[in-house]
Amino acid sequence: MNSLLEVQSLSKRFGGFTALDSVSIDIRKGERFGLIGPNGSGKTTLINCVSGALANDGGRILFDGEEISRLPAYQRTRRGIARSFQIPRPFASMSVLENLVVPLEYVVHRGSLHTADTRGEAMEILRGMGLADKADTPSNQLSQVELRKLELARAMAARPRLLISDEAMAGLSSNEVSEVLEILFRLNGTGITIIMIEHIMQAVMKFSQRVICLDAGRIICEGAPQDIVRNADVQKAYLGA
Amino acid sequence: MMRFLISALVVLALFAATPLVVHNEYYFFAGYVVLQFVVLATAWNILGGYAGYVNFGSGAFFAVGAYTAVALYKAYALPLGLQILAGAAASGLLGFGVGLLTLRLRGIFFSIATIAVAIVLETVVVNWTYVGGAKGLPTLRPAQAPFFESYTVWLFFVMAVLAVAAVGAARTIETSWIGRGLRAIRDNEGAAECSGVPTLKLKLAAAALSGGLMGAAGAPYAQYLSFIEPTSTFSLNYAVNALAMPIIGGMGHWIGPVIGAVLLGTVQQVVTVTISSEVNVLVVGVLLVVFVVAAPEGILGLFRRFFPRKP
Fold first, then answer.
1. How far is the alpha carbon of B208 from chain A, nearest alpha carbon, in Å?
2. For residue A140, is it within any domain?
3. 3-class secondary structure, B217
């Protein structure tokens, strides 16, 4: 009973298209977990089902032993699942700091707002992300790497137990990739379980303790990073036969 | 907060004192309309400006308030205060109901539904003979006005109280966690939900409050005109003004709709009297187009551009 997230034969169909076909995953507390697969393999659909953006058609999702498949997304965030978005979705009318105040108010300090120093806490998180000097900048004026960090910072402000990082590094330079990677390692060091979805192989392979490869909505391979890259099915999925 | 409360009381005291200086009753008759638009524009902005859900049917919410008040007045001779409360409750319920049906979906479904509701309800009222149906219903004002000499001045003051209350409510929401949640919804609903914001609940609350305030603005309408009939009560004019005023004033801040309503409302009153009531509609249309094209952030946005806040 050491698993934090259990996905049990999860299915999701869009009309006649099966995006997820009976996917089962078991993620342990504190684990660094990699999710890879070619474009359209169902990675984002899977985490949309886990985070509550999409309702699954079949199967169950258990978080810390509790069935969460029917809960709305905000309830799942309040239980401890936070995510970043593949294409950054900042609250554009707000400053960087205020972006973090939203989850602090709605998740962490719900019901005790008058005593909470949400701005101070938000500032603390920004410092950890190297965004402190941007705190008062309108969030629509950030660079690409800053937006990625803001996505992670806002997810962290919900004080999650499980952080899902959806392609937080796509389009970044190799220096920036190591910067984000370092942040994720540090967060994991504080006890947060992390699911990383990534196309940048060096990053996933370096980061993950265990990797699953999806193709066409099915798990085709599961194992340690070095085994995954050698797996014939994975190579076929990525490179073609 | 304290400062705002005191300012609000001062504003109300000034409104209460106006009859000592202004003796021409027409100014109160015209001022009532401007204040009524302050309520409507502020109410619209709570859902449309903060959360980004556009209501095209403000006229219907206004009219539900007005006709609820008339029906109760005719049936039980309820006093004005209770008419307003009942009108607000009915329109608030309408906002909640329309929201429940459409706010589960993102985007324009709510807006389309508000248009439909306006058409359906107008048809219902046209055929409801108890409140006069299509030919309208004259309403007798109480012979005596409380506190003031004339009933028009009393209604003017009541509307001033409603305006201050509406602005106070909007400001409280805007500066609180609720306002931040609504803005998060407008900016990105998916991200808001994933940040723990209960988006549906918040949208429903905003729709109910916005509708309720519009109903409150409509409730004294029959007393004001001593008459009520569907075409002018459901007028598209209310819907257009309720959204034009916040857009022209500026939607991000509670003062925006107030500026828009005072400015546009006054211009319309002046134009109606000096030129014609047809030109008055034209003025709104032209100003709306000019602002949407040239200054989408409204007068507040222009002001901020020319007088940027010092860091």
1. 21
2. no
3. helix
